[in-house]
Every structure is written in C-alpha cells, then in structure tokens.
Amino acid sequence: MIRNLLLISTSTTHGTGYLEHAEEEMKNLLKGKSSILFIPYARPGGISHKAYTDKAREPFEKWGISVTGVHEYEDPTKAVQEAEAVFIGGGNTFVLLRNLYQNKLVKPLQERVNKGMPYIGTSAGTNVAGKTIGTTNDMPIVHVKTFDALQLVPFNINPHFQDPDPNSTHMGETRDTRIAEFHHHNRQPVVGLREGSMLRVHGDRVNLLGPHTARVFLQSEKPMEFKPSDDISFLMEAY
C-alpha cells in the first residue's frame, strides 16, 4: 500500500486560525496538487455542507489549492475516484461514518488512498481513518451499522487526548481508563493525540509531528510516551 496520510488531532488550536497550526505539514503533503475534495459529512454544529465547505475553502485557496465539496457532485463515488486529494473535517464521528457508508464512499476511499492519494483528516476525519471508531470521544447521536472505519491504518486514534488534571476534583473516568476498557475487548493499538499533534503516515512509516508527545496504548501493556519526530512505525504491525 502506498499510504500518504496526515492525521491531525484538531482543526484549530488555542490562539490559531482554522488549520493554521498544520499549514506547513499540509502544504508538504499536497505539494504538486492543485485541488482537493472536501467531505463535509460530519457537519459540526449542524451547519450545512455548503457552509462547512466554504470554511474549509478559505485556507486552501490561500495556498493555491481549489476546494470542492463532495456534495456538489451528482456521483460522490466518481468524485472520490477522480480527486487529487481528500480532506475530511471534524464534527460528529458517528454522523460522518454513517454518511460515508450511505453514500458508498468507504471502498472508493480505501482504494484511492491505498494507491497513494493524499488523505488529510482532522478530529472525526482522523477517527474514521483508523481501524474502528471505538475510541472516539463523540456521543453516538445516530445509529451506525458498524464501527468499522476506513481502516487506512491498522490502529485506532483518540483525537483531543487529554491528561488527567491533578488539581481537579472530578471523580469520573480518565481517558486512560476508557482506553483500557476498550482494550478489554479489542486488540488494536490506540494513539492518544494531544491538541496540535498529528501523525504523518507514508507507506508503512508513521511519524509523530507537532509540539507534544503522544501516548500509545497497547493491549495489556503500560502506556508509552513518544516525542515529536519519533518513528512509531511499529504500530503498523503491532498485533
């Protein structure tokens, strides 16, 4: 497989504009491309597909890359098959995955990405790049027939990963606890991506980018921390 992915924890970090914190990495991924197909199916806050696409269009056009929304095409499958690159934005992961299946885009996306088409995901768009959506933070506001995601990588991701606040009086489960519960029933690794962090996947290589460490969870093992620029390609064959 000729994977060429940029999987980003969030589209906006504190003090930055939309996609601004990942600008250089996105430009590098899209070098030589003049257009990108945006899939707005997650629809954050209930905004329309058009409004969401207009928002995504602003930064890309500053970089000389035109943006069209998949909803603008009569045949979404053909749009994916002919796209130079694809970007899937954030919102609700369950809504996103249901729409990907309903519009029959799962297999076309898998086929194109496996042949080298650049793929960018943020938040929910990063969730669906993994093996399943079983480690999303979202509420299941719609029913999905399966948790199986695009499986562009053989592990799961937990975007917006948060560490416990030692000064908090909150007595609920930590993110570590919830991922440990996930591993009682599932084998695949989970990458906890903190805000501003991203994974660059090229072929079978996986590198952590951004300002923060990432926490990697393997079934029945103590969580591990990895630094930016670390090679964590073992995730591709972790089980």
From TrEMBL:
Classification via InterPro entries: Class_I_gatase-like, Peptidase_S51
UniProt keyword Oxidoreductase, yes or no: no
GO molecular function: dipeptidase activity
Enzyme Commission code: 3.4.13.21
UniProt keywords, alphabetically: Dipeptidase, Hydrolase, Protease, Serine protease
EC class name: hydrolase
A Pfam family reported for this protein in Swiss-Prot or TrEMBL: Peptidase_S51
Family: Belongs to the peptidase S51 family.
NCBIfam families: PRK05282.1
Name of the protein: Dipeptidase PepE
Native organism: Pontibacter rugosus
Gene that this polypeptide is encoded by: pepE
